[in-house]
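Q: Please design a sequence for this.
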């Protein structure tokens, strides 16, 4: 099977929309009155969840009316945040067909269907004209993409000159070997991490000026500590990323925290401008 097929299989669930809606109902939410904030525990599939998205948005500088591209949007949490809280129009693309369908269902449920749109597509070959978007961002996606030069060149192609581009991704550390499984891969065959310096060089070649690089490792450690404490006090929450990751969630989480503490991974933000 191709890497793309393996990646889409890795993320596919089979019955994700119903699973999330049932968990929301079990958590006492009225399914006819859902807000983007209600979905945040489950629809932000990256380290730090909604908190990380809000922090990132402060540095990214999106303005109302901008048309943004979310590359590898997953089930769309960040896109609905930028639409609902910053007045942006967002187009999300993702390799995994089920995620695009769930993203659209959730947008409908929170009344944002007119502001966000999702398409199944590969980030390496996107179905958009040159210079379509005012800005783009990508959260925790490049770990599944070996051809990072191709990825950033393709994103540069669809951005207007001077557009903003933000990345929040998991970078590799000094030790290349990871403890698997992790949330983005069960084994090394679909995991491709680049170090922060390599990322900066790749972005430069693709036509981006990197204006800020931020190591988010300490934030991530603190976030996981708080998550563990909350689970110890009140038990696992009904709504969470375990709904996406299934029974292997505890092991994936444990390995990710271990990789983080052993310097094998560095969650890192890059804020760039297309030249
Ligand atoms: C860990 S999830 C992050 C989802 C979302 N960005 C978020 O933060 O909630 C990784 C996502 O990247 C997508 N992905 C991986 N490789 C891709 C590719 N080549 N093109 C488009 N999407 C891809 C996967 O389908 C998955 O939805």
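A: Design:
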């Amino acid at each position: 099977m191709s890497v793309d097929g393996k990646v889409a299989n890795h993320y596919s669930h089979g019955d994700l929309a119903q699973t999330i809606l049932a968990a929301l109902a079990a958590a006492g939410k009225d399914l006819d009155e859902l807000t983007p904030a209600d979905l945040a525990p489950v629809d932000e599939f990256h380290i730090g969840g909604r908190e990380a998205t809000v922090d990132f948005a402060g540095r990214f500088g999106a303005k109302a009316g901008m048309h943004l591209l979310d590359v590898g949007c997953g089930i769309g949490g960040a896109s609905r945040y930028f639409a609902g809280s910053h007045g942006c129009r967002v187009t999300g693309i993702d390799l995994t067909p089920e995620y695009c369908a769930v993203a659209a269902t959730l947008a409908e449920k929170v009344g944002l269907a007119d502001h966000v749109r999702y398409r199944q597509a590969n980030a390496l070959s996107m179905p958009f004209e040159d210079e379509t978007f005012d800005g783009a961002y990508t959260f925790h996606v490049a770990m599944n993409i070996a051809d990072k030069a191709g990825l950033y060149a393709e994103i540069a192609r669809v951005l207007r000159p001077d557009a903003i581009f933000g990345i929040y991704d998991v970078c590799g550390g000094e030790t290349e070997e990871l403890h698997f499984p992790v949330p983005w891969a069960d084994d090394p065959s679909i995991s491709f991490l680049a170090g922060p310096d390599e990322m900066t060089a790749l972005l430069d070649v693709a036509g981006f000026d990197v204006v800020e690089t931020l190591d988010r490792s300490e934030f991530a450690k603190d976030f996981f500590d708080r998550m563990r404490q909350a689970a110890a006090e009140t038990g696992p929450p009904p709504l969470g990323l375990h709904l996406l990751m299934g029974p292997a969630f505890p092991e994936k989480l444990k390995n990710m925290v271990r990789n983080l503490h052993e310097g094998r991974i560095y969650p890192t933000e890059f804020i760039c401008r297309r030249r």
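Q: Thanks. Anything notable?
A: The beta strands are 67-71, 89-94, 116-120, 133-139, 159-172, 208-215, 265-274. The chain has one domain: 3-274.
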